[in-house]
């Protein structure tokens, strides 16, 4: 009866083995030795093979333990390095913020006697005013959707009209795609270094070589139009020549209608 049942099981589901195979790992070294050697082998041979297997297993165990230990150490080292990198990055952010606050205190006074080219400062102060609770990169990501399409490869309708206005008034030109690219990465590309160009007598200055110089002017003009940058700003080209002036979100050609 049992045999017939087993046969039926085999026929109905041929992929199921009738007997489960005993796994190698569950054998003791002496059981495994008996399986390996000739049935007529002497006890001494079996004992020798048993010893050999036991020793091989111990060696394998030692190597595995060493690998586990090294992995654990590597993980600890990696976590420590990551924590250090996080701390360093936080320290940098704190220093950058301090630097920015210092500039915000000093630059307005400085602009009464010198021209101050500070692309990053202008964008940063506008963004901080626009979204005081966000970190800079998050505030910029939110802001740039006004000018750059979600793919990051093109300009929005507002962005295109702003670009043509700035190009028309400043005489600087660049391809839409290059300006979009400049705007996409703007916050990472703008140096926090401040220059004091001699070609304009005084005041806040932004710009530089297109397309990046135009991208900066677009961001500053937009922030100015939204009321987040109170200063008037002169736009310069890549050769430090003044090419336009931005006032209250409106750009006019240089020389501006009023004398400086
Ligand atoms: C068993 O091992 C011993 C020592 O390693 C060796 O002298 C002996 O010849 C071995 N015997 C067999 C049957 O392999
Ligand atoms: C971060 O700054 C603190 C105190 O200002 C300092 O003790 C620490 O070493 C700095 N960390 C790194 C990774 O530079």
UniProtKB/TrEMBL annotation:
| Source organism, top-level taxon | Eukaryota
Q: Which keywords does this chain's UniProt record carry?
A: Signal
Per the UniProt entry, the signal peptide is 1-17
Q: What is this protein called?
A: Uncharacterized protein
């Amino acid at each position: 009866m049992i045999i017939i049942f087993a046969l039926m099981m085999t026929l109905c589901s041929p992929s199921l083995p009738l007997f489960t195979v005993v796994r190698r790992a569950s054998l003791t070294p002496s059981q495994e030795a008996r399986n390996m050697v000739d049935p007529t082998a002497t006890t001494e041979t079996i004992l020798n093979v048993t010893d050999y297997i036991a020793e091989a297993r111990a060696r394998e165990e030692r190597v595995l333990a060493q690998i586990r230990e090294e992995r654990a150490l590597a993980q600890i080292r990696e976590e420590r390095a990551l924590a250090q990198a996080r701390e360093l990055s936080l320290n940098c952010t704190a220093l950058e913020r301090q630097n920015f606050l210092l500039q915000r205190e000093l630059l307005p006074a400085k602009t009464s006697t010198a021209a101050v080219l500070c692309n990053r400062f202008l964008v940063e102060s506008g963004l901080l005013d626009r979204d005081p609770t966000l970190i800079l990169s998050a505030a910029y990501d939110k802001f740039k959707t006004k000018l750059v399409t979600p793919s990051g490869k093109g300009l929005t309708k507002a962005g295109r009209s702003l670009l043509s206005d700035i190009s028309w008034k400043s005489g600087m030109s660049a391809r839409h795609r290059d300006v979009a690219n400049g705007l996409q990465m703007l916050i990472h590309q703008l140096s926090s270094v401040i220059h004091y160009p001699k070609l304009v007598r005084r005041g806040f200055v932004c710009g530089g070589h297109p397309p990046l110089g135009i991208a900066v002017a677009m961001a500053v003009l937009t922030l100015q139009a939204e009321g987040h940058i109170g200063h008037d700003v002169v736009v310069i080209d890549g050769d430090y020549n003044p090419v336009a002036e931005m006032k209250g979100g409106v750009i006019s050609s240089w020389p501006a209608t009023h004398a400086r």
